[in-house]
Amino acid sequence: MSRTETGLEPARITILPAAVADGIAAGEVVDRPAAVVKELVENAVDAGASRIQVGIEAAGQGVIEVVDDGEGMAPVDLPLAFLRHATSKIRSLDDLRTIRTLGFRGEALASIAAVARVEAVSRPRDGGEGYRVLVEGGSQIAAGAAGSPVGTRVSVSRLFFNTPARLKFLKQPATETAVIVRLVGELALAHPTVGITLDVDGRRREPATGGRPLPPSTTRQPPRPCSRSTMESWPA
Fold first, then answer.
1. Helices 173-190/33-46 angle, 10° precision
2. pTM to 2 decimal places
3. Distance between alpha carbon 194 and the CA centroid of its chain, in Å?
4. Which pLDDT does position 183 carry in this prediction?
5. Any residues with CB less than 8 A from the CB of 84 and at least 6 apart, and which?
6. 3-state secondary structure of 151
7. Which fold would CATH assign to domain 18-220?
8. 233 neighbors 90 (Cβ within 8 angstroms)
9. CA–CA separation, 173 vs 89, rounded Å?
10. pLDDT tens digits for 144-170?
11. Boundaries of every domain in the chain
12. Separation between Cα atoms, residue 125 and residue 13, nearest integer Å
């Protein structure tokens, strides 16, 4: 018998559309610009990078860019990196017993791309051509071959463009910038063999480290200058 025939009220529980569910899930990983920086830098560390350059504009609400000289990704793998639970770090539950990477769930890029515009350009260390992918709001907009040094560059813009309520919870730009500066300092201290640098609005910033000196590796020359993202050249 139907609920109407039994006198019961219509069901009020519905299954959320995929876009809504992804947006909610993204909020568990990405709640402010600093969270984007953390996820991208940790991905770079897991990729075996020896140098990582972080650049932000407008407290991370303009552009967040992370460039590394790690293993890079092959053209066949780069689009998959934007799918939820797509990862190269584990294959089975048994792998969780010996996990040594900072991330393994395969949610970082998918969560960021669900609430922002993300361009990723990568070239694998073991040979092959560079490739780039552009994703906005969880949907792939463009993909194709691209010139790139070995490693990966991820540029994030329009953060929270489709979840305006999230913007209301952000602090003043100076505060959000300070959080990022301190985070990068902590990451540099946690990974002393990796040269991590930070540019804020085009100017080099010394990461905040709570009074502790940064390791010498952070003074290394970064892979290349961090400039404004080239995403405007992509199709809308």
1. 20
2. 0.75
3. 18
4. 96
5. 22, 25, 106, 107, 110, 111
6. strand
7. Heat Shock Protein 90 (3.30.565)
8. no
9. 35
10. 999 999 999 999 999 999 988 889 999
11. 18-220
12. 49
